[in-house]
Amino acid sequence: QVRLGESGGGLVQAGGSLRLSCAASGRTLMGWFRQAPGKDREFVVCISRSGGATYYADSVKGRFTISRDNAKNTVYLQMNTMKPEDTAVYYCAASDRAGLSGRADDYDYWGQGTQVTVSS
């Protein structure tokens, strides 16, 4: 059984920053998704096992940065210049696939999510 655990969520003002962490499983592909109230789950970003390849959603490109420390089995999501529309539950996800993917169906393991709220 693979378990993923997110931490670091909270309340921040618009323009502020938060860093999320995910105690990962050592899986090949790691990603972050988010789901706002009344909306579908949305892809945010993913990173390859080596950390050498990343793929960002346009909505967060230039503001969010994903990284991973394989020695610590941890994936991070640094969120800067945050906007109220970033408010959502953020989920960490893992997959054994080799390539990058923004499709939720390509991920086999999910965390329980952490709430991020950006006030205006």
Note poorly predicted spans.
Answer: none
Number of helices: 0
Order of helices and strands: EEEEEEEEEEE
- What is the terminal separation in angstroms? 40 Å
Which class best fits the helix and strand makeup? mainly beta
Instruction: Report Rg.
Output: 13 Å
Largest sheet features: 7 strands, mixed
Find the count of extended strands (DSSP E, 2+ residues): 11
Fraction of residues in H or I helices: under 10%
Strand content: over 45%
Mean pLDDT: 94
Q: In oligomeric terms, what are we looking at?
A: single chain
Shape: globular
Structural overview:
A hairpin with a 6-residue loop joins strand 5 and strand 6 (54-56). This protein is 0% helix and 48% strand. The chain has strands spanning 5-7, 10-13, 18-23, 29-35, 42-47, 54-56, 64-69, 74-79, 88-95, 109-110, 114-119. Strands 2, 4, 5, 6, 9, 10 and 11 form a 7-stranded mixed beta sheet that branches. It is globular. The chain is an all-beta fold and 120 residues long. The mean pLDDT is 94.
